Structures are given as C-alpha cells and as structure tokens.
C-alpha cells in the first residue's frame, strides 16, 4: 500500500480558503444624519444596527434576510446619478427607517471604481 | 356555456356541498325567501373587488385634489389619503398613474400583492418626505462631499 493524502471519507476542503469576512461596500452616511447614525445602537439595539450594516456592506441590492425592504417611489426614489440604484427603504425596527442608494463601481475622489453605499436619510421617529 | 344555477335559501342546507363548491369555483347565486338575490364567493376575490372599488374612488379624489392649485389644497382634499399632501404635482401624477396600473393588474390577476406593496412604498415615501431634513436630501442633488464614511456599529461606539 502506498502512502497517499487521499482520504475517501473526509470532506474536501473548500477551494480558495476561508470566505472573505471583509465588507465589500464602503458605507457612507450623509452628514445631516451622522448623529442619528451614531445613536443607532442605543435607539434600535446593537444587533439591529449591526444587521443593517452587514446587509448594506455585503448585499445592499438584495432583500434583507430579517427586516423588510422596499423602494422609495417618485423623485425620492430616482438614482442620484448614473450607475446608482434606486433609493432602498430599509425598516431597521418598528421605529426606524434608513434610505440608501448603492453603486457597484463608484469613481469618487479615489479614482478607482469601487462599491459604495450612500445612506441618504435616517428616520427614527416613525410610529 | 352551462346555464347559471340559482340556488334557493333552503339549498344552503340541503345542497350545502354543491353550493359551496360553486362558490369556490367563482360564484354561487342564491335567491332568498323574499326574492332578494345573494351571492357567495371566495373571500380573496371579495377582498380584491372591495380594494379595487375603493382605490377607484380614492384615485378620483386624488385626481380632483391634483387639479386644484397646490397653494389652495388642504389635507382633507385627499380623503383618507392625507399623506398624499407631501407630494408635489409631478409625484402626485406618478402616484396616480402607477396606482391605476396596479389596480388594473390586481383586478385581472385577482391578486392584491403588487398593489399592496406599491401602496406601502408610496406611503413610506410620504413619511420620509414629511420631514424637512430628509426631504431636502432625498429631493436634492448629489454631492459626494456631503457624505462621511462610517464603520460597523460596535458597543460603546
């Protein structure tokens, strides 16, 4: 019998190593709502705030796994510029709403195309 | 095409299964003892008919409100949709056109899912525009320098 690395009853390793945990999208918030962003953990809970961040940092264009998402209609929902998504409306909690747009290849001051999420408005007063 | 059956009130007892099967297929017509005509139909279909008729009425009210000069409009001009007051003329026109299309789809598909989602989205939009700060940003032009980068919320941050 020859020595071999092959072990038929052991699952093969995932090719390419561990999945990247690094967020894919840069997340930016409008200055007018920077204070509300800072108060998110206190207002809606740390878990909900992190869930939102993880959602927009990785899959801003998909329906949220936990919370309800929709799109704003009319002019408020139109893309801010070419390449941007429509405005997504994310219900972070019973009392919190966040509106954002994303761009998969935004060329800002950095020059190189990179994925970005722009949080346009935060509403912690609903209902 | 088969002749339409009209059941009697006593058929609700004697032919209960036949009457309910007819209703499940679309509609069962019943004549009460005093001659009054009644119908039995699936609740889901009734809900679509009810919503479609209510939305026809609401959209007519919204059309009339939009026809008034904006400075003369008051919230009650919009009937029970007072949140429409947060939209300008362009958005009101878009709302009415999109809702008319969705009402038609709901009626013909016998399904309110799309209409309900559209109304939820428009209502959420109105709530966002109700606040002057949010309104200014959501309807304003884009300036990258107005945004600052943020990290994942952490305890104590």
| Helical stretch tally of chain A | 3
The average pLDDT value of chain A, as a whole number, equals 86
> Which geometry of chain A do the CA atoms define?
globular
CA(first)-CA(last) distance of chain A: 73 Å
Strand numbers in spatial order across the main sheet of chain B? 1-2-3
What does this structure look like?
The complex is a heterodimer of chains A (127) and B (157). Chain A starts with 25 loop residues before the first strand and ends with a strand. Chain A is globular, with a radius of gyration of 20 Å. With 127 residues, chain A is an alpha+beta fold. In chain A, strand 4 (96-106) and strand 5 form a beta hairpin. Chain A has three helices and five strands. Helix content of chain A is 18%, strand content 28%. The longest helix of chain A has 13 residues, at 46-58. Chain B has six helices and four strands. Chain B has helices at 11-14, 16-25, 43-67, 89-109, 113-129, 132-139, and strands at 6-8, 28-31, 37-40, 147-149. Chain B is mainly α and 157 residues long. Classes of the chains: A alpha+beta (127), B mainly alpha (157). The interface between A and B is large, with 44 and 38 residues.
